[in-house]
Amino acid sequence: MDASVTSRSTDALGRRSGPRRRYSIAEKRGIVEETQVRGASVPEVAQRHGINTNLVFGWRRLHKQGLLKADATTQITPRLLPVKLTTPTVVPGNYPAAKHSRRRRRKQDGAMIEIEFTGGVRLVVRGGVDAVILTRIITALSGQ
Questions:
Q1: H/E element, 63
Q2: Residue spans per domain, the chain
Q3: C-beta atoms surrounding 35 within 10 Å
Q4: Which of 129, 99, 95 is nearest to 112 (CA)?
Q5: At the topology level of CATH, where does 1-78 sit?
Q6: What confidence tens digit (pLDDT) does each residue in 47-101 have?
Q7: What is the dihedral angle through the alpha carbons of 43, 47, 52, 55, rounded to the nearest 10 degrees?
Q8: For residues 117 and 104, what is the distance between their CA atoms, to the nearest angstrom?
Q9: CA distances from 2 to 10, 69, 97 (A)
């Protein structure tokens, strides 16, 4: 009888808990390539590696899309593009603030715009804002 016991923490339903296992792109690619051998079964390969079959199917999809390449992680980083501010066209008149329902306002609360002007002036707008008011603020801050 084997006396070695591995400590594995589980929740009340018997599911494994604790930190998730992280797989490198090379490991994922290797497992996916094992499933592409003629006669290989995805569930058998997954079981051999001790991982869920659905995870392997997900990796196969990524591999098919070309996202399991060594340089794929560098392509995911978003880049910020420079923005040039031009003189806005504002038609003089009385503009009532936009009326939004509670439902629409809740959706816009998570929205955010951040503009940094030359000279270190920064404008941060959160949630829904009337376009005319925002145009006037940008005009004032840009010194036009």
A1: helix 53-64
A2: 1-78, 80-144
A3: 19
A4: 129
A5: Arc Repressor Mutant, subunit A (1.10.10)
A6: 999 999 999 999 999 999 888 887 655 555 667 778 777 776 666 665 555 555 5
A7: -60
A8: 30
A9: 22, 41, 75
